[in-house]
Design brief:
Elements (H helix, E strand, L loop, with lengths): L7 H33 L3 H29 L1 H21 L3 H15 L4 H11 L4 H12 L2 H15 L2 H33 L18 H35 L2 H6 L2 H15 L5 H22 L3 H30 L4 H30 L1 H20 L1 H7 L6 H11 L2 E9 L6 E2 L4 E3 H6 L2 E6 L1
Antiparallel strand pairs: 1-2, 1-3, 1-4
Helix pairs in contact: 1-2, 1-4, 1-6, 1-7, 1-8, 2-3, 2-4, 2-14, 3-4, 3-5, 3-8, 5-6, 5-14, 6-11, 6-13, 9-13, 9-14, 9-15, 11-13, 12-13, 12-15, 13-14, 14-15
């Protein structure tokens, strides 16, 4: 089997299951929550509070679930996750009390960690580590339509059915569509393992950060991801009331609807024009778009043009962030133990995302909307520094320049890579640096001791 070819069948299958997973387990909730609240005699705010608790529980369970993906295989984990998610939705639908509903929702959101991006990225890494970065990019492009597809589908179903029936249909989708596809992917992984028995082991994708420097690099990355997760969750949950509070009135819903298409557009532009862009650069661009969008909203509102620019840039940044959340950990730390690594990253992001809606609502009530947007901008700037600050990573990243590693890096990161090239000559005892993209062939021909990549 050619390890440098994209596993298109797996990417397509995961694209379908990711749309169903995010659409049924996350995006449908905001449409159905008011009816759920009325049925239990509670406020809509209480229902979203339950969702925050469920997301927090999912975040706390994510590191353990990530280790399970490494130990048992991502395919098996996703198969089990689809079944548990379906059962969780059924339990939500038949729960007679709000307490039972909350417990079932916690189970559902914990299972979501086994069927959404983190698990899907781990499966692609386990399947073809050398091309996992590009596979993740294509997957996020396909899965970017979850909100665009499931918001109207959920609304249409709910116009004719109760929320209990809608959740029953979505449970069937997870069990009857996603579960068999994930089972097929698990068989593919098992077949690959059996084919490699007695043969040379499938080459792993090496990480850029040496073992003794990984703690600090991981802390920087997780901090940046957590801040962006907090910012994104705060804005997404409150986008329509936020825009309305800035004087946009009825345009708030129209402007908010631009977010989904902008996400997909950002991923498509990256796929067409930024294929060889290093993940650290992509992370910096993503965080910068989110920062710039908030600044434009703060300065330009209530101008409709400024609001449209905000939605477009915020969507672009979020679209790229979905890609970076898979490709950056792979580039920095390699494919070994990727499921466990993703579990830790997802835990930090989900905990921040669970806190964000309540924190931002309190901020808007206490400090008013402009000050709250200012806090968002400050947080996004911290993420730019953590994810895109070249100096910290330049000191941390060191690439051993062997022919084997060069071949693997070239497959994973493209034919050209923007980097600082440090060449030490034993005769001249000097160093030369270049900030321009360098063909890998030049690296092989030179006497290169180290590549400092950013």
């Amino acid at each position: 089997m050619n390890d440098t070819r994209i596993p298109w069948a797996a990417v397509a299958a995961l694209g379908l299951t990711q749309n169903i997973g995010y659409g049924t387990l996350y995006y449908s909730f905001s449409i159905l929550a008011p009816d759920m609240a009325r049925g239990y005699g509670l406020s809509t705010e209480w229902m979203f509070g339950v969702l925050s608790i469920a997301l927090l529980a999912g975040g706390l369970a994510a590191p353990w679930l990530g280790k399970a993906l490494d130990r048992f295989g991502a395919g098996r984990g996703m198969t089990a996750g689809s079944g548990i998610a379906g059962i969780g939705l059924i339990l939500c639908a038949i729960s007679p009390t709000a307490t039972g509903f909350g417990a079932a929702l916690i189970l559902t959101e914990m299972a979501a960690n086994l069927v959404q991006y983190g698990a899907a990225f781990a499966l692609l890494v386990q399947l073809r580590p050398a091309v996992a970065g590009r596979s993740i990019t294509y997957l996020t492009l396909i899965a970017g339509f979850a909100s665009t597809v499931f918001w109207p589908i959920t609304t249409a179903l709910h116009n004719h059915l109760s929320w209990h029936a809608v959740y029953g249909i979505y449970a069937a989708a997870n069990i009857l569509i996603c579960m068999p596809l994930h089972r097929w992917l698990a068989i593919q992984l098992r077949q690959q393992a059996s084919d490699s028995t007695g043969k040379a082991a499938r080459p792993e994708s090496p990480g850029l950060v040496p073992q003794d420097r990984r703690t600090l690099a991981f802390a920087l990355m997780v901090f940046g991801f957590s801040i962006l997760g907090l910012v994104n969750s705060a804005i997404l949950v409150h986008m329509v009331p936020l825009l309305g509070g800035l004087g946009l009135g009825g345009l708030a819903v129209v402007v908010g609807s631009l977010f989904g298409p902008s996400q997909v557009a950002g991923r498509l532009i990256n796929m067409l024009l930024g294929r060889d862009l290093p993940p650290l650069w992509l992370a910096a661009i993503s965080a910068s778009f989110i920062t710039l969008s908030s600044a434009i909203l703060l300065v330009g509102a209530p101008s409709p043009i400024a609001a449209v620019a905000f939605a477009a840039l915020f969507g672009f940044g979020n679209g790229l962030f979905s890609i970076v959340s898979g490709t950056l950990p792979l580039a920095l730390f390699g494919s070994r133990g990727f499921g466990s690594l993703q579990g830790k990253v997802i835990a930090a992001r989900l905990i921040a995302s669970a806190v964000a809606p309540i924190a931002f609502a309190s901020s808007m009530a206490t400090f008013d909307i402009p000050w709250s947007i200012g806090f968002i901008i400050a947080g996004a700037l911290l993420a730019v520094i953590a994810l895109g600050g070249n100096r910290p990573y330049r000191a941390l990243i060191s690439v051993p320049c062997s022919r084997r590693n060069t071949r693997l890096f070239r497959a994973a990161h493209g034919s050209r890579l923007s980097c600082w090239l440090t060449i030490r000559s034993p005769h001249l005892r000097s160093e030369r640096r270049s900030g321009h993209p360098i063909p890998w062939e030049h690296v092989l021909r030179g006497r290169t001791a180290r590549l400092d990549l950013f």
